[in-house]
Automatic annotation (TrEMBL):
Any GO MF annotation of the entry: metalloendopeptidase activity
InterPro entries given in the database record: Cell_wall_metabolism_enzyme (IPR050570), Dup_hybrid_motif (IPR011055), M23ase_b-sheet_dom (IPR016047)
Protein name, UniProt field: M23ase beta-sheet core domain-containing protein
CDD domains named in the record: M23_peptidase
Organism per entry: Candidatus Buchananbacteria bacterium RIFCSPHIGHO2_01_FULL_39_8
Domain of life the protein comes from: Bacteria
Pfam families assigned: Peptidase_M23
Gene3D superfamilies: Glucose Permease (Domain IIA)
Amino acid sequence: MFTKRSFGLVILFVLFCSSGFGMVYPIGDMAVKPTTSFDSGNGYVITQGFLATRVMDGVEKTHLGVDLATYNNASGGDVYAIDAGIVADVQYSQATTGWGTMVRIRHQLPDGTVYYSQSAHLLYGSVTVSKDSTVVIGQVIGQVGSTGYSTNPHLDFEVKRLDNDGCGYLPDSDCSNDSVDNYYDPLDFIEAHNQPSTVARYSNGALNQPILDCFNRNGGADHFGQPFNNNGGGVYVHDWYSLDGSNFVTIQDFYHPGYDFYSAIIESSAMSAAFELKAGFRWYYMDQLAGYGPSTLNAPLCDERAFVDSNGLFGPANQIYVRQDFQTGKTLIWNLATGIQMVDTPSDGFHIALGGQESIDIWTSSVSYNQVILNWLLPFAGSSVVYRNDWPIHTTTDQLLTDNTALSNTTYRYYVQATSSDNGVVMRSPVLEVTTPANPNRYTITAQLRSGDYDTVDVEIVENTLYPYAPFHCFVRNDGAESYKVAATSWSFSGLQTGVSHTFYCEALTASDLVLGRSNVVTVFVPVPPTVTPTPTWTPRPDPNVPFKIVDGMHLTVIGDIFRVSFTAEAYQTVTLDRFSAKGYIQDPWGDQYSRSWPAVQFSPPLVMNPGDR
């Protein structure tokens, strides 16, 4: 497989830069800013603005986001990602408290600023993304609903600096460390960054027509994604010099977060055109040549193309290669067996035509959650290179590929590039989008408060057809409390903080602690133990030796681990007390009885009680 790993890359985790296409508004007409009037044309109106105040529970509080709704509080409208990014958190909830169903996305501006957009009260079951998945600008992430603490369908939308739920309003005891300074006015923030496209533009706004032509010729934003700050030149078209300063290329870098795909467009002065540098060839140019790509290769003379080495110029005859020629007389070639090689451009008379005719039929004969079977039909005898998400994954002279590396619930873009056996024709199929179904196997846990216990939650794996051996390497996490990694299928979390919610989920791990996958997430509220006043379980019998009686029984108050007992005594006769003690048992609401003895209470001076005194 032709992947990053096959080149020995050190893969870094990166944040997604702002698209360079501006941002969009999260609801309604994405290009129109909502206002307090329906005349804005967005379709949604601000029902509660940023930093608006309202009295809640007797306290004036400040709203940290913006509420958006239709004129008739309709649910079901699409909610969009305002920019490209990575999903930081998804909460699926039908509860009538908190955010309900919510999505939070991590973004990064071209200047490196990280920020988060949060969409809450979404319609339960409408979320289309998952934690750690990538999103592109304008992608539907869910629908307007009324889950959580909400009286009518609306979108509660926040833009903030911190990756946390927040409380929606301040002040709030649950968010005592939060501050209004951590939040942006969401709609003003989008408006301020809603700038024109930077595709094929220099920083002064001038247009580079060859780069724009290449961008449009190869599929536009669907293929390239958005301009990306890769080598210090920003998101604009710029001149990139080799480390020794001997030469430079005019370049613009791109990144598509939906496919985790990096590419660049480089202008070729020799061809009065610009060409794409992508995938492994881009890695070789940028990284393997260690900053000397502009001097060693300079600009490409064509987009990469597949061909058959019928004369055995680079190895055994009739091998299939991907090839791209460069201005310095060098050519990069690749096939599955040899990887990438840089060779002198052969003078074999073979010319790779610009563009490529799309006349190859391509279709799927089978799609399952872990397999895609592709078929295609060539109009000539030849060989093919199969691309998935713009990475070549297979070379063949057949017209069928079984892709067993597909993941469930994932969209892939396949196309085939073919060369006739006499190298006379180069063709490329249309792009075929394939979405694999969800994995029918499941990995499910339950978590519930233990009956009769106010600080213990029991967690159990109830279904595990997805990772049948994972319970022996399972890491059950509890946010804010303990974590367990034991050879079992059930766990108990004790000593939990009361009065708050705790989140539980299980991660299936390999023996070397690599995460295979995560179970469903279960949230359990651990209540504060209530004050208990049980029915009196004993009353002293009148006795000549006992000069007082209990007149209204015994009261038990439980505060945390403290048991406080009180009762009322009435004297039969005059009596002087210097101390008092009690002994008996308590029956709790669950029927359990506990023996209790209370130490003597000393009275100094002695307590004098007359008949009828209490």
